[in-house]
Amino acid sequence: MKAAALTRPPMRAPHPVPNPAGGIEQELATSRECLTFRLGAEEYGLDIMKVQEIRGYEEPTRIAGAPADVKGVVDLRGVIVPIIDLRLRFGIERPTYDSSTVTVVLNLSDRVVGMVVDSVSDVVDVHSSQIRPMPSFDASVDAHFITGIATLDDARRMLILVDIDQLMTDSRAVPSAVAAQGLSAH
Known about the structure:
CATH 2.40.50.180, five-stranded mixed β-sheet, 46% strand, disordered N terminus
């Protein structure tokens, strides 16, 4: 699946919203397309416009001294791409690598990164009215990269919305040897 095939601008549609004066008025509200994926039993979503492609999992080349969640790098058509296993980053013990395990290749503002997930579910339209704020947790829960919780299908399905740029700005996200040298295969 290539990003070019998925490039649609965010949709804007009339949506009734409460008016502070007490009535209901039509306002243009936004919705966005999210790629949904699974990590363990939970379902997450990220902006589809960040997705370059989805690939079956292949064992990357390890980088010496890299954190455990940095599985290594792969050569993707001449570009060396770091591969981050989100299951390890999120503390899921002993992830399995099977036929449903995929690498989602992300095109972020300043780099290309691959993230390993258990599976990709689908692409959904998430309307702003379906998004609830992230509940407050104590300092032991690091949720700085979660933008909200979307309730879909009449609240039968909850989707944890992730700011993938924020998640990948963690200094562990890109092996320092790769980032510092700006490696690319020629």
